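WARN retry 2 of 3 for item q-0093 after timeout on previous attempt; input resubmitted unchanged.
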Amino acid sequence: MDSKSSTTKASSARSELLENVSRIVVKVGTGVLTDSQKQPDLAQMEQLVAQIAEQRKAGREVVLVSSGAVGAGMGRTGLYGGPGRVPPGGADRHARALCL
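OK item q-0093 returned
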């Protein structure tokens, strides 16, 4: 089987599975929300939003759960050491940036 027919078959199977589904829970993590430099990956987020919008138009409820919010915020604020490792004197500034 070539890759095109394999993709078509997978798409068809996915459509069948979603036929009677009314709610979808989507869990995204840091790897989905950030690029290789740990910065928010806006192109990837746009694709995710488009896919969610498509499901909403089809009448499905979509619940988005993110374990990637901390990782996305770390890139935005310049914190790469992990949660809880804030540079001295930077806690206020970083906390405010995460709330944007």
